[in-house]
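User: Quick sanity check before I run a bigger batch. Here is a single chain. Can you write out its predicted 3D structure?
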Amino acid sequence: MRVHEGNVRGYGAERGASGRMGRRVLAAGFALFLLAAPAFSTSEDSLPGYLVEKWGRLTGTLSEALALRDRQETLPASSWFGADKSSNAKKIDELLDQALEILVQGRAGDLRRQALELRTDIPGLRLEADGLRNERISAPETSRLPWVRTRAKIDERLSELEEEISHRERALSEVNAQLAEALRALGLQLDQGQIDVLLSSVTGDDLLQNAVVFANVRAMVEKLAELSREDRDNLEINRRYSGLYLVLNDLLIHTQEELVRKIDEDYKPRLGEIAKEAEALRRDALAKAGQKGYTEAQRRSFSLNAESNAMTLRVADLYMQLLDSQRKGVLDNLTDLRRNRDLAENTYRTVRSSGDLRNLIRSGLELFDSIHALSMPEIRPFENETIRREFEEINKRLKR
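Assistant: Done. Predicted structure follows.
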């Protein structure tokens, strides 16, 4: 079954000793994040309010996934009628996705969504302003027709757009600061510049989402440990709790494998196509810039186009390094997470007492505290505004 699915130099600077130091700083930051994950008392109030409110729905969804998981080995590989391994695994993944809809909640998750909405709004407003500036060229100075846009009306709208863009940029800066604070509350140390890079990258949304999911999963595991102590002599209840813990491991693996799939099947191939196109355009522009059949102004324009495509290639290479670093980190952690799931599954099948479950959860929490579960790559602020804009342009093309 599938069940998958550093803050030193600027982007564009040479990599070296300081880059390695950045990775060590990030590693320390992740260790702090995991170690600082909240420990909960036996009171339901110790859980975040959204988890308390959705606890029944969440555990019910996970229990459904567990029941389907129990069926998996007994089902045929394929079947014309009825369930088979493939259809059953698909249902499990759908249930895990439903659980994720709850587990992505929280202040950091809400701020992440606000930031992404603002980042989506701003380019649209800039595009409208660009269209109006072009329309203004041929617009009349005056007109008696109310539906005709005069230069004065266009200027008025351009002024409004300028204010709207400035307002959203200020709001985005404030949200980024709040998001950095919310992530620090989870133990993840990122400054506003690094947050900006994350939100500008195609994997950033997944990374920030996984930060929230990981914290909420850990909170649930702590609560399961407490509940098991209250029913320590009821083997059926303890088996159920160990099963929920098993499915939570499935869920963490699911999020990480899904990110690897996106990188391998979507982002890296698209990025390769962008780089290939930019290289072809660069070569063509350079060739024509040296041909005497074109005017001097035309040759100069070809040279500028070649430089622009060279910048695209440079930023695409930086982007590929970011994706490769992310992919390697996720794969490294998946090895540990899968081993932890193997232990969880074995214990679920053979649980005899609450002690078995407590030992299982204790070892799981030790793992959570020792691995870099979010696998964030080295995150460096943008070297300059040109690279930042090119990075965002590539990101838009990757998301199409």
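The chain has one domain: 17-109+202-398.

User: Great, the batch can go ahead then.
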